[in-house]
TrEMBL record:
It holds the Pfam family ABC_tran. The lineage of its organism: Bacteria, Pseudomonadati, Pseudomonadota, Betaproteobacteria, Burkholderiales. It comes from the Bacteria. Keywords: ATP-binding, Cell membrane, Membrane, Nucleotide-binding, Transport. GO terms for molecular function: ATP binding; ATP hydrolysis activity; L-isoleucine transmembrane transporter activity; L-phenylalanine transmembrane transporter activity; L-valine transmembrane transporter activity. Residues 30-277 form the ABC transporter domain. It comes from Hydrogenophaga crocea. InterPro entries: AAA+_ATPase (IPR003593), ABC_AA/LPS_Transport (IPR051120), ABC_transporter-like_ATP-bd (IPR003439), ABC_transporter-like_CS (IPR017871), P-loop_NTPase (IPR027417). One of its GO terms (cellular component) is plasma membrane. The keyword ATP-binding applies. GO terms for biological process: D-alanine transmembrane transport; L-alanine transport; L-isoleucine import across plasma membrane; L-valine import across plasma membrane. This is ABC transporter ATP-binding protein. Coiled coil: none annotated.
Length: 284
């Protein structure tokens, strides 16, 4: 059962008279319940769920082998679940294929970066943008005025997205020559090009140095402030605790705790999963 407290832990900014700066639009964006997934004899997920409110950064954490990537892959259409129900933006949602997931409004990045290595940074983002292009095959073949205008718009939007994630100066560089941190940001730009409601990031800070992590954190906060919700798997607990509104911690395929960073940090099973039993035993 998903025991998560569904309200956001962050308070709405207030004006001097105490009224809210913006009218909070709290509604459930993604609701996932009762997901089970078995690989042969291994129960990788047991009755796992989560509820992401619009405007939240939601963290999925847990030790190695906890089931985070499996759950992510189920939500993003890579693995069919054995059971589970899904609602996105109030509508039933079937994550049956990557295309269906993108059309529904979820974009993702991968633990092992999956860029088109021999294409430029700009071309990589244009590929993501083409998914939203309205050009028909005939327009493409005939290279009509409408098609040319659409291509120019896609190029401009892709450039704007590179600027948004801070790598516009690398637009014409071949993707595989970019630094690790820049490749991760490029992957985020490509995912944003599909205009998602929810951006799902699998270990976005992996391999980053502290300064790259600080830049990433600012970027993710910016994306959230611009109205796109985020689900992230991340091993850097400090980053997750500082960034996320709500967190689910998994261990051995089941939810051990779900709540605000403070609630998760204080939970005995979370402490045990991360620090081992010794930490819980009272000192003499
Ligand atoms: N395709 C698969 N076939 C068989 N077993 C799998 C498959 N994918 C994952 N598993 C197993 O399911 C369990 C959960 O793995 P998963 O990768 O989801 O964990 P994780 O929490 O993402 O771990 P990590 O932090 O190391 O990436 C592990 O025991 C793993 O070996």
């Amino acid at each position: 059962m998903n025991r998560c407290n569904r309200s956001s832990s962050r308070s709405t900014p207030k004006l001097a008279d105490g009224s809210p700066l913006v009218t909070p639009s709290i509604h459930s964006l993604l609701d996932v319940r009762g997901v089970n997934k078995r690989f042969g004899g291994l129960q990788a997920l047991s009755d796992v769920g989560l509820s992401i409110q619009a405007g939240q950064i939601y963290g999925l954490i847990g030790p190695n082998g906890a089931g985070k990537t499996t759950f992510f892959n189920v939500i993003t259409g890579l693995y069919p679940p054995d059971s589970g129900s899904f609602t996105l933006d109030g509508r039933p949602y079937s994550p049956r294929s990557v295309h269906q997931v993108t059309d529904a409004g979820i974009a993702r990045t991968f633990q092992n970066i999956r860029l088109f290595g021999s294409m430029t940074a700009l071309e990589n983002v244009m590929v993501g943008r083409h998914i939203r292009s309205r050009s028909s095959l005939m327009q493409t073949v005939l290279a009509t005025q409408a098609f040319k205008a659409s291509e120019a718009a896609i190029r401009n939007k892709a450039r704007a997205l590179l600027a948004y994630v801070g790598v516009e100066h690398l637009a014409d560089k071949v993707a595989r020559t970019l630094s690790y941190g820049d490749q991760r940001r490029l992957e985020i730009a490509r995912a944003l090009a599909t205009e998602p409601k929810l951006l799902a990031l699998d270990e976005p800070a992996a391999g980053m140095n502290p300064s790259e992590k600080a830049t990433l954190r600012r970027l993710l906060e910016q994306i959230r402030n611009d109205g796109i919700s985020i689900l992230l798997i991340e091993h850097d607990v400090k980053l997750v605790m500082g960034l996320c509104d709500q967190i689910t911690a998994l261990d051995r395929g089941r939810e051990i705790v779900c709540g605000s960073p403070e609630q998760v940090r204080a939970h005995p099973e979370f402490i045990q999963a991360y620090l081992g039993k010794a930490h819980l035993e009272p000192t003499a």
